[in-house]
Give the backbone structure.
Amino acid sequence: MPFAKEPVAFSLTRPPVRPRTPSVWIADAERDGDLAARLAPTVLDEDELARAAAFRRVEDRLTYVLAHVALRQLLAAATGRSPRAVRLVRDPCPGCGGPHGRPSLAEGSGSVHFSLSHSSPMVLLALSSTPVGADIERLPQLPAVAGVGRLLHPRETAELRARDATAGPRAFARVWTRKEAYLKGLGVGVAGDLSRDYLGTGEHPAQAPVGWSIWDIAAPDGFAAAVAVQSTP
């Protein structure tokens, strides 16, 4: 589902994905964060600039800025607008109706859906013609595997407990990114029920919930990434 050419300002990477998947890009703030920061005043809106300024760690601030500058450039190319003219809003939450659901374009661009995720210094972006969720995470430490792992589907929790210490963090990162990508695609985020759907901790995702497709995305060493897209009829 190609929507736009990569912005020439950045060295965005297109990871290998199967046909009929969203358009996916990975960016690195260690490489392009300073360039994004120079572009930010003419690309980001006032709210995004304020959020960026609130980060205490320079690495986190540059990662956030790169994510949003690159996203605006991609959406501008997809919609024919300038990056600063792209207006982003939040859809109503499917669970409570509050204004914190899936991010979307403000004016009549329902055919372009997007998702972004960042874990310093890496950024993952996805565009699709149907609702989409993306997530990238750094491999966790063992305490997180044990602590958060018990909140997953009972089969996933059992799989993590059966793995040795060296395999646990990667297995956890695989299932966590699949879960978060799917829940972001639904528009509920990690406030959704992590234990409801079984997506698996193995090398390949388990069967996705009805109406969705989930893929692992090739990520840099030390990271895991996944994308979920609502299936077309």
Observations:
- Residues 58-79 form the longest helix (22 residues).
